[in-house]
């Protein structure tokens, strides 16, 4: 079976959690960083599949779903829906780690903190492109044009204009985005994130 790009289905949800964890260390496997295997996916993957299935696509080969692109056409409306429909249940399950000094937080505690204090994407970036996305492929699908195909599918749903935030150390992904046509927005905080935009 060739790698197929298709719209997200609800039964793909477990794969979203798994792929998010396995690419959660700046693009590499983040399993060793976490005690809780789901928490990273609760923030960066699952809510997009559940709340924004129209903008979600997966890449599937003979062994199963091994990649996704997820996003929203309207970042501010999505953030509002997370506040109303997604974060409350997670806040009940994961205690806030605000009392733990930042340098002493484990990755699980950092992500619990994000659930209680989710940062809004910067206004300057949202003004340029209200849509945003996340893309992750397991190693077996990387470097074969699958990322490009997923990006084509997502951008088609948002009229070709979108932004993304990439962790600064993940230079490999940034090169992919630049080759695809994204441009970097220098000087937008926080410095730990590289913000990029296409179509604007
Ligand atoms: C980053 C990622 C999405 C790229 O997808 P991919 O399928 O591996 O990339 P593709 O094979 O579709 O590459 C598309 C184009 O970008 C180029 N490219 C991809 N990665 C590149 C790199 N690191 N440096 C230079 N060019 C690169 C390819 O040569 C190709 O160019 P072409 O179409 O002109 O031939 C994928 O590797 C991935 O999921 N990595 C791990 C998770 C991750 O880092 N996600 C991003 C978090 S911000």
How large a portion of the residues is in β-strands, by DSSP E?
15-25%
Order of helices and strands: EHHHEEHHHEHEHEE
Main-sheet strand order equals 1-2-3-4
Mean pLDDT, rounded to whole units?
97
Molecules bound to protein: coenzyme A
Features:
200 residues, alpha+beta, Aminopeptidase, 4-stranded antiparallel beta sheet, 3-stranded antiparallel beta sheet, 20% strand, globular, binds coenzyme A
Descriptive overview:
- It is a single chain.
- The mean pLDDT is 97.
- The chain has helices spanning 13-22, 39-44, 46-51, 75-93, 107-116, 123-128, 146-157, 171-180, and strands at 4-7, 57-61, 64-72, 132-137, 162-167, 183-185, 193-198.
- The chain contains eight helices and seven strands; from the N terminus they run βαααββαααβαβαββ.
- Strands 1-2-3-4 form a four-stranded antiparallel β-sheet, sandwiched between helices. Strands 5-7-6 form a three-stranded antiparallel β-sheet.
- β6 (183-185) and β7 (193-198) form a beta hairpin.
- It has one domain: 3-Layer(aba) Sandwich (Aminopeptidase).
- The N and C termini lie far apart (37 Å).
- The structure holds coenzyme A (COA).
- The site of coenzyme A has 19 residues, from β4, α7 and α8.
Protein topology:
Elements: E1 4-7, H1 13-22, H2 39-44, H3 46-51, E2 57-61, E3 64-72, H4 75-93, H5 107-116, H6 123-128, E4 132-137, H7 146-157, E5 162-167, H8 171-180, E6 183-185, E7 193-198
Antiparallel strand pairs: 1-2, 2-3, 3-4, 5-7, 6-7
The structure holds coenzyme A.
Residues 23, 27, 135-137, 142-148, 166, 170, 172-173, 175-176, 179 line the site of coenzyme A (COA).
């Amino acid at each position: 079976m060739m790698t197929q790009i298709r719209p997200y289905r609800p039964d793909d949800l477990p794969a979203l959690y798994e792929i998010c964890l396995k690419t959660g260390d700046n693009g590499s496997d983040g399993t060793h960083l976490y005690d809780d295997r789901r928490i990273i996916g609760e923030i960066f993957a699952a809510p997009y599949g559940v709340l924004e299935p129209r903008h979600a696509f997966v890449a599937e080969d003979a062994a199963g779903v091994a990649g996704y692109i997820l996003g929203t056409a309207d970042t501010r409306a999505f953030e509002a829906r997370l506040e109303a429909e997604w974060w409350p249940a997670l806040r009940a399950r994961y205690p806030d780690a605000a009392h733990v000094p930042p340098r002493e937080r484990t990755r699980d505690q950092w992500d619990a903190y994000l659930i209680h204090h989710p940062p809004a994407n910067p206004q300057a970036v949202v003004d340029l492109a209200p849509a945003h996305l996340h893309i992750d492929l397991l190693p077996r699908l990387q470097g074969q044009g699958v990322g490009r195909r997923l990006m084509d599918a997502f951008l088609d749903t948002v009229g070709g204009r979108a932004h993304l935030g990439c962790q600064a150390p993940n230079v490999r992904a940034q090169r992919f985005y630049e080759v695809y046509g994204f441009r970097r927005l220098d000087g937008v905080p926080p410095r730990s994130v590289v913000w990029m935009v296409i179509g604007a």
